[in-house]
Amino acid sequence: MTSYDALDPRLPSPLEEVADDRFGQHGVRLLLKRDDLIHPELIGNKWRKLVPNIEAAAGRTLVTFGGAYSNHLRATAAAGRLLGLTTIGVVRGQELADRPLNPSLARCAADGMRLHFVDRSTYRRKAEPETLTDILRAADAENAYVVPEGGSNTAAVRGCRGLGEELRGHADVVAIACGTGGTLAGLAAGLDAGQRGLGVPVLKGGFLEAEIQRLQEGAFGGQRGAWSLDERFHFGGYARTTPELDAFAEDFEERHGVAVERLYVAKLLYGLVACAEEGAFARGTSVAAVITA
User: Fold this and answer.
1) Which tens digit of pLDDT belongs to each residue from 35-46?
2) CA 193, 187, 163, 20: dihedral to nearest 10 degrees?
3) Do 179 and 212 contact (CB within 8 A), yes or no?
4) Which fold does the domain 61-143 belong to in CATH?
5) What is the CATH code of the structural domain delimited by 5-40+152-290?
6) pLDDT, tens digit (0-9, with 9 covering 90-100), for 77-103
7) Would you list the domain boundaries of the chain?
8) What three-state secondary structure class fits 80?
9) Phi, psi of 168, rounded to the nearest 5 degrees
10) pLDDT above 70: residue 4
11) Residue 2 pLDDT > 60
């Protein structure tokens, strides 16, 4: 059995209140749930989602999926190095195989992850059983344990329930940036009655509500907890930013001394400021923003 104690995770992760007049003038408290401080390499929801899957893998090779700049691939590769596990990353874009590795994929390779590139059409069909079988056969990984893109599956959702449990009694609203929806699905299940989860999707498409419902059905047998999505703050889609968002993130960093990751966390915090200014939170509301990266 793998010993995670040797990695010295910081759990529960810290909860810090910050004074921000954009919230304070509306009678709203802002708390930062510092999941980015759980572990220097397996940060935030990556720890909460990966550890249950590593336990389920029981020593088998871990295969997972991602794009050229995937945080999930980097975290899986780091977990493999730290825990002595074999990892394979299936990367979207066959054309990338003929190019020098970008810094993100180079880090994966340095951590021992074997990279297997597939064309974009095949990647889109990776969840289809026949396509997945073909990918695993080509990667020489037919007996591997498969973790989906973003790490969101039943094991991961159950693992993220602990995030909600850590926030019981501390906030009225718990907000998180959403990619695949697994973290919100789990944390909402861990919250107390009277608390609610708020997801800020970083992708366009409007598909996450059904996906979160599906994940909760698989993990818990039905919908758990109160949660909703605000899909206005994706800034053009995944991995998209704008000068306005960059300026906002820099200002938040200067105000509070907290590094703001641009692709997820900046969009979450921007959305919360907008909601506060719109009066979306009643006076006296405590809002906890989960800093995942």
Assistant:
1) 999 998 887 788
2) -80
3) no
4) Rossmann fold (3.40.50)
5) 3.40.50.1100
6) 999 999 999 999 999 999 999 999 999
7) 5-40+152-290, 61-143
8) helix
9) -60, 130
10) no
11) no
